[in-house]
């Protein structure tokens, strides 16, 4: 039987500072309900001044290892769009700080789709025999790249990290990842971007304007693309593992905003209560979005062992991706240590 990647540990970390809607809305003299009604978000966590994305990733990775009762991983893959610096990648630093010494470590940047791409990368390393286990982390400090005066983007995003430990196993095991569906559309790269600071601008000798260093997004076009791409990709992932969409127990999608999640449910003709959602409490956490939703679904019992689960995300690039698994019985979620997998 072929070698598969099996989810065996889950961890997450949110920075302690919480930014609720009432505080955020006061910056612009707006009603907090204005934010909630348009996004479904009530609060978000923001990075502590002086800390960085790698700090979030290290803590989430440590918790995922603890959940699995492990102290090692054969490789580390970090999905992020907000590394500590342009170079080098943060994954080697994260691995070092977790005591993993000289293991293979690499960053993946597919923006909000990053975690699914990182899962596929980790699964590939296991299938190829490069590593017997892979720590996959999604981490972003996206509030650091937001224009504080932009009402269209500033309320949407929060900071955080989530991680899973994958181990080598067989495709018939609970937790085995399958049904990977990945795609991109570079023709629409300008819909989601941070235009300044890259090689194109530098080689042209142009000054870096402050507004070019902030994240920007064409909201209406992104909404339409997100609904279309996630709906199709999630359905393909289910089909690849032989699951009719009506028989999928839980859909865990990138938490972009509540309206997109509702639109995907309508597009797929799937009851909305089958979609795991934590967006009200954390906002859009980019590459951390799906593992944070998994953590919360595990903690509140929405995700239960044996359920058919499909993950799907959409992000800049444009990129999209999905994967499927039967939810495993996580060892750290036992009665002995009920919070180890879902702190």
UniProtKB/TrEMBL annotation:
Q: Which residues form the Beta-ketoacyl-[acyl-carrier-protein] synthase III N-terminal domain?
A: 107-186
Free-text note on domains in this protein's UniProt record: The last Arg residue of the ACP-binding site is essential for the weak association between ACP/AcpP and FabH.
UniProt keyword annotations, A-Z: Acyltransferase, Cytoplasm, Fatty acid biosynthesis, Fatty acid metabolism, Lipid biosynthesis, Lipid metabolism, Multifunctional enzyme, Transferase
Per the Swiss-Prot or TrEMBL record, the active site comprises 112, 254, 284
**Chain ranges of the Beta-ketoacyl-[acyl-carrier-protein] synthase III C-terminal domain:** 242-327
Name a GO CC annotation attached to this entry: cytoplasm
Function description: Catalyzes the condensation reaction of fatty acid synthesis by the addition to an acyl acceptor of two carbons from malonyl-ACP. Catalyzes the first condensation reaction which initiates fatty acid synthesis and may therefore play a role in governing the total rate of fatty acid production. Possesses both acetoacetyl-ACP synthase and acetyl transacylase activities. Its substrate specificity determines the biosynthesis of branched-chain and/or straight-chain of fatty acids.
Protein family according to the UniProt entry? Belongs to the thiolase-like superfamily. FabH family.
What is the official name of this protein in its record?
A: Beta-ketoacyl-[acyl-carrier-protein] synthase III
Provide the taxonomic classification. Answer: Bacteria, Bacillati, Actinomycetota, Actinomycetes, Micromonosporales
